[in-house]
Specification:
Blueprint (H helix, E strand, L loop, with lengths): L12 H5 L3 E9 L2 E7 L8 H9 L9 E6 L6 E7 L4 E2 L3 H13 L8 E5 L2 E10 L2 E8 L22 E5 L2 E9 L3 E6 L8 H9 L9 E9 L2 E8 L3 E3 L3 H13 L6 E6 L2 E7 L6 E6 L1 E9 L2
Parallel strand pairs: 2-3, 4-6, 11-12, 13-15
Antiparallel strand pairs: 1-2, 1-18, 3-4, 4-5, 6-7, 7-8, 8-17, 9-10, 10-11, 12-13, 13-14, 15-16, 16-17
Amino acid sequence: MIAFANLWRLLSPAVFATMAVMRFTKMHGLGNDYVYVDCFHERVGDPPALARAVSDRHYGIGSDGLILICPSTTADVRMEMYNVDGSRGQMCGNGIRCVAKYAFDHGLARRNPMRIETDAGVLTVDLLLADGRVSAARVNMGRPRMAPTDLPTTLRPEEMIDHLVEVRGRKLPMTCVSMGNPHAVVFVASLEEVDLARDGAFLENHEIFPERCNVHFVRVNARDDVTIRTWERGSGATLACGTGASAVCVAGALTRRTERRITAHLPGGDLALDWDARDDCVYMTGPAVEVFSGEWPAA
């Protein structure tokens, strides 16, 4: 299929014919969408600049960021993630499922389970197949990290769980968890009282997070059921966040608000989370969808 980014070639085919192009694929996990580039076959010279350009929802392809699928010397493939603002992200739970789907469906790697190298380490992904293609995946997200230096944060260790943070005059309980990237989980009685853009940006850039933070507002519906609204560092409001949902699973269990196995409802759909007591790892299961492929003028 032809991407919207290519419509201009219809107006100037002679000009377009003289330019090099880069192939891309748009994919999403629960609406958390990224532009994916197969760096086994394509070259990206300036990933931060490309991320800013393709992510723009008015003048670009439109996405929550850019993910490069690259060769790896330690795993089946390597994943590099860039946010809307061009900043580098360590990991993306929805993104890694799509990386696994692309790699398997397009023949870059056919191993199941698949090992994917990320900036947060090498993670294992169990592929769920339908008619020989990946429809969903179960990801071992690794062990949560709870030291202040892991986020990082200026909080003391004893302040990492249910720390009261003031947001627009209200003191709300916040638990900090690193899943390879930093997360602040704030439990609220009503999500309707949350101004996601204002409150999320405030906490993302709070002085206690010197490298900023991903922020999640959570309503507990039952011991095994939560609803989440997410403000991602460097991207803003997103329909889903896999590492964030994993952090919510950990935070809920640590504070005894939930069980270790939960269903998380996000604007884009549901994720199944399990903080397994046997190995201390969080397992996340959810879909991966390929939307379309196209061409982008190469730098």
